[in-house]
Amino acid sequence: MLEEITEVGLFETMYNCRAMRKLDTKEVPEEHLIKLVSAANQAPSGSNTQGARWIVVRDPETKVQLAALNKTIVEKYMARFVDNPGSLSHHPADKRQRMYEAVLWQNEHMHEIPALIIACMDFGDKPTPAMIAGGNGSIWPGIQNLLLAARALELGAAPTTLALTNPEAVAKVLNLPDSMHAYCLIPVGYPLGKFGPVTRKPIEEILRFDRWSD
Ligand SMILES: Cc1cc2nc3c(=O)[nH]c(=O)nc-3n(C[C@H](O)[C@H](O)[C@H](O)COP(=O)(O)O)c2cc1C
Fold first, then answer.
1. Contacts of 184 by beta carbon, 8 Å cutoff, 6+ apart
2. CA distance 105 to 57
3. Considering only CA atoms, which of 187, 2, 196 is closest in space to residue 103?
4. pTM here?
5. Range of the domain at 26
6. Does residue 95 sit within a domain?
7. Ligand 1 within 6 A of CB of 21
8. Is residue 25 part of a domain?
9. Low-confidence stretches of the chain (pLDDT beneath 70)
10. In contact, 170 and 73? CB cutoff 8 Å
11. pLDDT at residue 15 in the model
């Protein structure tokens, strides 16, 4: 029997859907995992092609292999933000440091996280680089639906792409046919930290009506 979850409003969910990287090892009920993918599956896709495919990885050995792929890239990638704080100048230093630490925590613990959900696209045939690039527009709405659904179920989740940097290695681990490409790996589990509001640029900076002006 699943625990009772109080329904949270859509806007509250959107404004409080932080990337939750520090996750408990406690198992996530399969019903919840199916509900997440079902929410993702409601998202739109270009021409309604519905090419998105979702792999929920719970197998310990497969998680170890995906975590190893993440490890090959994370430390190198994150170092550039630490060495060059100006690269995320809209983040206060303490927030940047917290994100860095959380990314490293996730890197160390990824194999222990209960479920790693991989968002893939099936193109029917081996996709060209242009098709893979175009597929982003049709996979990310589903990923965002999944993240919002996770937040509504009080599950922690975060979109990640670094572990998927080497498509051939990912295809081998996940047994993907040539027609499929993996876009995003979403670790899912119960949060160790607290949920809270996201911090984003003010509306005055990012919105104009009718035409752009400085
Ligand atoms: C396209 C994309 C790729 C991302 N890749 C990673 C990743 O590889 N590893 C990671 O820890 N977070 C990754 N993130 C998460 C972002 O760092 C996070 O959403 C952003 O810092 C905002 O965090 P917040 O919602 O907690 O404020 C990615 C997000 C997006 C949208």
1. 118, 119, 139, 140, 143, 159, 160, 161, 164
2. 19
3. 187
4. 0.94
5. 11-195
6. yes
7. yes
8. yes
9. 1-6, 81-89
10. no
11. 97
CB 130 within 8 A of CB 155: no
Is 159 touching ligand 1 by the criterion CB < 6 Å? yes
CA of 210 to the centre of ligand 1 (A): 30
Q: Is the CB of 63 under 6 A from ligand 1?
A: no
Assigned domain for 156 exists? yes
Structural domain includes residue 211: no
DSSP string, the chain: -PPP-----HHHHHHT------B--SPPPHHHHHHHHHHHTTS--GGG---EEEEEE--HHHHHHHHHHHHHHHHHHHHHHHH-GGGGTTS-HHHHHHHHHHHHHHHHHGGGSSEEEEEEEE-SSPPPHHHHHHHHHHHHHHHHHHHHHHHHTT-EE--B-GGGS-HHHHHHHHT--TTEEEEEEEEEE-BSS---------HHHH--SSS---
